[in-house]
Amino acid sequence: MRRPLSFSLIVMLLATDPAHAADDLLATARARFQPIPLRAPALPGNPATPAKLELGRMLYFDPRVSASRPGSCNSCHNVGLGGADGGETAIGHSWQKGGRNVPTAYNAVFNTARFWDGRAQDLDDEAGGQAFNPVELALPRDQLNAQLAAIPGYLAAFRAAFPGESAPVTLANAQKAIAVFQATLITPNAPFDRYLRGDAYALNAAQKDGLRLFISKGCAECHDGMNLGGTRYAPFGILERPGADVLPRTDKGRFMVTDTVGDQYVFKVPQLRNIALTAPYFHSGRAWDLAQAVAVMAASQIGAPVSDEENARITAFLESLTGELPRVTYPILPAAVGPPPTP
Ligand code: HEC
Ligand code: HEC
Predict the structure, then answer these.
(1) How far does the centroid of ligand 1 lie from the alpha carbon of residue 121, in Å?
(2) Is 299 near ligand 2, meaning CB less than 6 Å away?
(3) 93: closest CA among 114, 123, 111?
(4) Structural domain span for residue 73
């Protein structure tokens, strides 16, 4: 049998006004975060064409043209593994000595801070607003030319992608093509995106609480914008330096680029999109569990304590950041006619 709502309950409901509180949360969230767009962003000075996209796809998957042969971009930034490699660390692009955790290639096009230590190149890029260039030293010029020359099928692909150029097989064009392909590696429609677009039911109660805590505890001071990160650098251990198990003392981050004491253990604030798919965490790849990573952050980065209950909610919120991964088609790669040149 149905019973009428008691008067006091109605008064209570009106007083707490949940609808109003929910609107506040949405408005606060919208002021700090933006949804992932549904379509690949246009890159300034680098218009996408089907031929350029296909060339970029070929170069991304071809293990023969990367500096780190026999690995392709995809062996480290694996499109089936959340855009990363599922391992603790990898030796990154050729400039990089020590091993670091592979950042996801998904939504990387929206980051302005790329690379864990913000090497000069990256910051120039940021300051000058240059076109998104995902590769840089991953493809050394000499080697690229030698590799591609041994695979004549690439000439036709470069000609189609860069019509009218007399010598289209260049590192700059390879980078442009890969950038166009990488810009398609975006993951829209996460529950959090649908929430930001106005679907109040896209997040469950725990996730909404987690979002509220993520903002009120100060996580969003660093992890903000479309990718909840990828916009700035910050010391790992502002309040308390994490243990050497998570923060090995050998990798001093930005200090190794700038030689400035204040930059010791300063790292990129990583994006948190699809974070549930890309364990292990941190530049060291030493935290395998998302709740553990949140606990490390709570102790090292924010002034307020985070209870286990709060941690569970924040973690539930982070799980709402998993978007729709694109179905990426593996390209047909042109055959080589001779043995590969040795680097
Ligand atoms: C052997 C593994 C490996 C290969 C191969 C590789 N990468 Fe990376 N990549 C890394 C690592 C490790 C980093 C992080 C390095 C750092 O920040 O110190 C990285 C960083 C990046 C970033 C910056 C992402 C961000 O948001 O910070 C992009 C973009 C990227 N790689 C694209 C590519 C492309 C495109 C290719 C192919 C041409 C490629 N990578 C090949 C390991 C690899
Ligand atoms: C002062 C800036 C700052 C604040 C505040 C902050 N973070 Fe971070 N966060 C970082 C930096 C820097 C890293 C990268 C550390 C490293 O690996 O070197 C990071 C890494 C992470 C990672 C791991 C990401 C990955 O891909 O490895 C997670 C998860 C995370 N933060 C969540 C949070 C949460 C949840 C909060 C709030 C409790 C928070 N952060 C507060 C700066 C911050």
Answers:
(1) 14
(2) no
(3) 114
(4) 50-182
- Angle value at C-alpha 51, between 48 and 52, nearest 5 degrees: 45
> Which residue's CA lies nearest to atom 17 of ligand 2?
282
The answer to whether 175 and 162 have CB atoms below 8 angstroms apart is no
Residue that terminates a domain, selected from 151, 182, 213: 182
Assess whether the C-beta atom of 104 lies below 6 angstroms from ligand 1. Answer: no
Distance, CA 162 to ligand 1 centroid (Å)?
A: 25
* 1 inside domain: no
Is residue 12 included in any domain, yes or no? no
Average pLDDT value for residue range 129-138: 48
Q: Is 88 a catalytic residue?
A: no
Name which residue sits closest to atom 17 of ligand 1, judged by CA.
115
CA 220 to ligand 2 center in whole angstroms: 10
Q: Which ligand has the shortest distance to the CA of 113? A: 1
CB 90 near ligand 1, within 6 Å:
yes
**Lookup: tokens for 245:** 């198990």
For 213-271, write each residue's pLDDT tens digit: 999 999 999 999 999 999 888 888 777 778 777 788 777 777 777 777 777 788 889 99
Answer whether residue 136 shows pLDDT above 80.
no
% of the chain residues with pLDDT over 90 = 50
The domain total for the chain is: 2
134 lies in the same domain as 169:
yes
Q: Identify the pLDDT of residue 334.
A: 92
Counting ligands in written order, the one closest to the CA of 126 is: 1
- pTM value? 0.89
**Within this chain, do residues 105 and 221 fall inside the same structural domain, yes or no?**
no
Check pLDDT > 90 for residue 340. no
Q: Which amino acid is at 9?
A: L
Catalytic residue among 88, 136, 310, 319: 136
For the Cβ of 235 lying below 6 angstroms from any atom of ligand 2, the answer is no
Q: Which ligand neighbours the alpha carbon of 116 most closely?
A: 1
Q: Which residues of 52-89 are buried (b: 16+ CB within 10 A; e: fewer)?
A: bbbbbbbbbbbebbbbbbeebbbbbbbbebbbbbeebb
Q: Establish if 167 belongs to a structural domain.
A: yes
Token readout for 255 is 């200090």
